[in-house]
Amino acid sequence: MAAGQCLLLLCMAASVVLQARAQPDSKGFITLDCGFTGETGYAGVGDTTVLPDNGEFTDNVGTSHNISAEYVTQSMAKSWYNVRSFAAGVRNCYTLRSLVSGLKYIVRARFKYGNYDGLDLHPVFDLYIGVNYWHTVNISRPEEVLIVEATVVVPDDFLQVCLVNTGAGTPFISGLDLRPLKKTLYPQVTAAQGLTLVDRINFGPTNESLIVRYPDDPHDRIWFTWVDTVTWAEISTTQTVQTLPVEDLYQAPSAVLQTAITPRNVSGNILLTWSSKPTPMDPSPGYIFILHFAELQALPAKAVRELRVNVNDKPWFNFDYTYNLSIEATSNATLPPFINAAEVFTVFPTTNLGTDSQDVSAITAIKAKYLVKKNWMGDPCAPKTMAWDRLTCSYGAVGSHPRITNVSLSSSGLNGDILSSFTNLTAVQYLDLSNNNLTGSIPDALSQLPLLTVLDLSGNQLNGSIPSGLLKRIQDGSMDLRYGNNPNLCTDVNSCQMHAKKNSKLALYIAAPAVLLVLIVSVTVLLICLRKPKKQGEASAWAHQFSDKFSHTRAPLMFASTLRHQRRINAQFHNTTQ
Fold first, then answer.
1. Model confidence pLDDT, tens digit, residues 376-408
2. CB of 267 closer than 8 Å to CB of 298
3. Which residue among 292, 362, 505, 511 has its CA within the 20 to 30 Å range from the CA of 282?
């Protein structure tokens, strides 16, 4: 291969699944020094800015600490000096906002315990990206540095990274980074699965402390150097290694591809070893290998560089578990094998769905308005075991988002008017805001919540009247409204009695025909009795008794009038039929 101004990349991006969740800068980067509480940020790598952690990302929960002085070194970056710990609550989350929905992002969390609490512990806790389990953090030594990285598709315009207390130590974090990726990169990352980084290696440099990242890598991936000068020989170039623009799905930076290794024994192989690490949450982890190859030498005529990749002594596409990966020359090759860089990932599912986005927006606005200080961190409904206190959610079929159906904020210290965001909880059935200090009028828009059956507003300082829409819901029996103990509500009795007025009219419409019917039946019975044949003496005696009994009332006049009217009707009937 003739040398040119630029060298073309031959990238073997083979991937196999092995069975064994703040504001970005102009590049879309967010770099957060967790626990650093300065007023402004400071310069990071390249032209990046490291942001302070003043509670904006965590709703002011958690406490800041400095690590113990004995674990601070001169070469240590400033971002490792502090931590934020979360002693209260099961789940505490960082929320990164203003993201691009559907885009892929690298999420990187950094941890150094440094005996910040003076207890010399070894905390173990879980990390979640949104509502999906990501990784278990297990700190075994105070000086240990741990970086956990994932690549995921972000389904919303925000991302939450949550630390979950599993009872084995207080969760803490040193730093958090977010980096956007093109949608075409890392095609194994989908809405259904993400990748957790196991290792990202730059082969060839002899300086073990060399790290390649931004700005050499525009995506700020961190490439660590693996050095073994006894076994491997270095191949390098100072020329730019140009990747193939169409076929390259990983875009390893030129600074990484400018070096490679080859066996010192020309007949030898390159052997790379990784250990599978099952966890209780992922007993059979899947793996993805991405190997990067770039020919850096001008090959003589008829020279052949041909490679075979095996895993556990099996061909690349025919194995079940991964521990040893070997790169060897084929029988046709005249040159030894080589490799420039490698990335190894485990696969984790991201199929758990968060709460309906409209519900999340509504309940988040409610939380912010009333400064709710319950365990309202992370997703409101998911995972189900971490759902927010005072909320009840419905969980439909697989593939559907949970919905908020019950909000019970009785005696929660709510102040101010009733926020319009309540009307966006369109699946809510029970809303209890009783015994708070809510003021202002009752929003009529609450009547538009189609499934709301119980609305409890009692024990507040509401004023005005009950809106007509709610009165109609009360009248048709579709809602139970409770509004007692609001001294300034319904001061004008008529303003809250629309349902009573209409019921009175209905009672009148029903009662009047009923009274008329009873009167007609009574008169008819009486007429039958009067028309019954009697002896003259008996008739006279009865008439005399009747006259004596009603002589001092108006009843005889009414009866006589009715009797005459009845006789006229009878007469008209007989005349018509003759």
1. 999 999 999 999 999 999 998 888 999 999 999
2. no
3. 292
Q: Is the pTM of this model over 0.70?
A: yes
What's the CA gap between 259 and 294, in Å, rounded? Answer: 9
Residue 157 CB partners (closer than 8 Å, separation 6+): 97, 98, 99, 100, 101
CA distance 157 to 381: 18
Helices (H), 252-313: 254-257
* Amino acid residing at 511: A
Identify the three-state secondary structure at position 51: strand
**Which are the contacts of 296, defined by CB distance < 8 A and separation ≥ 6?**
7, 235, 236, 237, 241, 258, 259, 260, 340
Query: Largest Cα–Cα distance of the chain, in whole Å?
Result: 151
Judge contact between 287 and 17, C-beta under 8 A: yes
* Residue ranges of the chain whose pLDDT lies below 70: 1-22, 245-246, 313-323, 498-578
Contacts for 451 with CB less than 8 Å, ≥ 6 apart: 405, 426, 427, 428, 429
CB 32 within 8 A of CB 22: yes
Give yes or no for a contact between 304 and 333, defined as CB atoms under 8 angstroms apart.
yes
Q: Which of 221, 224, 185, 251 lies closest to 45, judged by CA?
A: 221
Q: Which parts of 169-248 are beta strand (E)? A: 172-173, 175-181, 193-203, 211-212, 223-226, 232-236, 240-242
- For residue 83, give the nearest of 148, 35, 146 by alpha carbon: 35
What residue type is assigned to position 2 of the chain?
A: A
Angle 33-37-40 from CA coordinates, rounded to 5°: 80
Positive or negative, the CA dihedral 460, 461, 465, 470 is negative
